UniProtKB/TrEMBL annotation:
Keyword vocabulary terms for this entry: DNA-binding, Transcription, Transcription regulation
Residue ranges the UniProt entry marks as DNA-binding: 27-46
SUPFAM superfamilies (UniProt xref): Homeodomain-like
Keyword hit for Transcription regulation: yes
Domain named HTH tetR-type: residues: 4-64
Domain of life according to the entry: Bacteria
UniProt key word ATP-binding: no
Species of origin: Sporolactobacillus putidus
Entry protein name: TetR family transcriptional regulator
GO molecular function, a single term: DNA binding
Length: 193
């Protein structure tokens, strides 16, 4: 029977490498080297690199879904503060420290491995659906919005998509500029202040 610690060590190394280098640039050899194993030892736990990748992204998406729920449920204040804090917390978690989970989630959501695209997108769709469900509750409680809730959620998700793409593929300062400018238009567009 495989030791759980070995499996977790392999998954942790794989998560880090997949997040930093991407699926294509990460080899099983790299992962094995990272945990002090021989490449063949990984096959005792996983059928192949695809099997390991799916195992890693499933856990990452599950954990990030929980994290998003915690952020959206625990922030104090009105809808605007909650939504801003959510975006800024995602940015902070992505840019500060070693957050392989969030990096691999965003990588899979926006640039999945081609041959695993369907499975990756399925996890991403579920992740974003959970966020939409939480956002719906926030917008339903808001007294300021002057559009229907679905429109507000869709507009917010569109802003979030653009900001995340800026963060992932451009840089933090571009994210900050886009966030500042797009937020003003977004909030004025959905509110009756």
């Amino acid at each position: 029977m495989a030791k759980a610690s070995s499996i977790e060590e392999i998954k942790n190394a794989a998560r880090y490498l997949f997040a930093e280098k991407g699926y294509e640039a990460t080899s099983l050899y790299d992962i094995a080297q990272n945990v002090g194993l021989r490449k063949q030892s990984i096959y005792a736990h996983f059928k192949n690199k695809d099997d390991l990748f799916i195992s890693v992204i499933k856990k990452a998406f599950d954990e990030e879904t929980e994290n998003a729920a915690k952020i959206l449920k625990n922030v104090e204040g009105n809808a605007e503060n909650i939504l801003k804090e959510f975006i800024l917390t995602l940015k902070m978690r992505y840019t500060q420290g070693n957050n392989s989970n969030l990096k691999i989630v965003f990588r899979c959501a926006y640039l999945p491995p081609e041959h695993l695209k369907e499975q990756s997108i399925q996890y991403a769709d579920n992740f974003f659906s959970q966020i939409k469900s939480l956002l719906t509750k926030i917008f339903e409680r808001s007294l300021k919005i002057n559009v229907d809730v679905d429109t507000a959620v869709t507009a917010f998700m569109t802003i979030l998509d653009g900001l995340l793409i800026s963060l992932i593929y451009i840089n933090e300062s571009r994210f900050d500029e886009k966030f500042k400018n797009s937020w003003i238009i977004f909030w004025k567009g959905i509110c009756s202040e």
